[in-house]
Amino acid sequence: MFTTLDCAVVLAASTIFAATSFAQSAKDIRGPSPLVAIEDQPPARLIVDPPLAKQLEQGLVFIQYAAENLHIVPVFGKGALDVSPRIGHVHITVDDAPWHFVDASGETVIVVGLKPGPHKVLFELADPTHHVIDSKTVSFEIPPKEAPR
């Protein structure tokens, strides 16, 4: 027969087990330590979401992106190719423009001033020498503006 003390011990043990089975390590959340070189890094990959719907309804384009196995930072040049974990930035081209702009913040990209209609934004993940590693295109449509009442 279980005593109150036995029940308390079982409850405490099961609580500790449940808490530790769901715990994550700092490495799980932040990735590998930047203080130790990574041998045989997996390929860098670009992830780009569609524009945020609520802002798009207002004619504003807010696009979130992330990179896997590459840190987005404002560091450029041939010497930065030897940094581990690897670093890079993103080239962004709107509607096949003959030019692009660079984002090295890793934050949401905001494009404003586009006319209603279909558009596309090309994201290119690049190394510090601007060599493109991966790319993704996001297509969307800016809704027509409602006539003032």
Provide a short characterization of the protein structure.
By secondary structure, this protein is of the alpha+beta class.
DSSP strand (E) fraction? 25-35%
Mean pLDDT: 86
Gross morphology is flat
Secondary-structure-based class equals alpha+beta
> Helical segment tally?
3
Percent of residues in helices: 10-25%
Ends apart, CA distance between termini:
77 Å
Report the CATH superfamily.
Answer: Immunoglobulins
- Per DSSP E runs of 2 or more residues, the count of β-strands stands at 9
Q: Tell me the count of domains.
A: 1
Per CATH, the architecture is Sandwich
Biggest sheet record: 5 strands, mixed
**What's the CATH topology label?**
Immunoglobulin-like
Order of helices and strands: HHEHEEEEEEEE
Residue windows where pLDDT falls under 50 for at least 5 positions: none
Q: CATH class, please?
A: Mainly Beta
The rounded Rg comes to 23 Å
Task: Tell me what you see in this structure.
With 149 residues, the chain is α+β, with helices and mostly antiparallel strands. The protein has one domain: Sandwich (Immunoglobulin-like), CATH 2.60.40.10. It is 19% helix and 32% strand. The protein has helices at 4-22, 26-30, 53-57, and strands at residues 45-48, 61-63, 65-68, 71-72, 87-94, 101-103, 109-111, 117-126, 132-142. The strands form three sheets. Strands 4, 5, 6, 8 and 9 form a five-stranded mixed sheet that branches. The radius of gyration is 23 Å and the shape is flat. The termini are far apart. The mean pLDDT is 86.
Q: Which features does this protein show?
A:
149 residues; alpha+beta; Immunoglobulin-like; 5-stranded mixed sheet; two-stranded antiparallel sheet; 3 helices; 19% helix
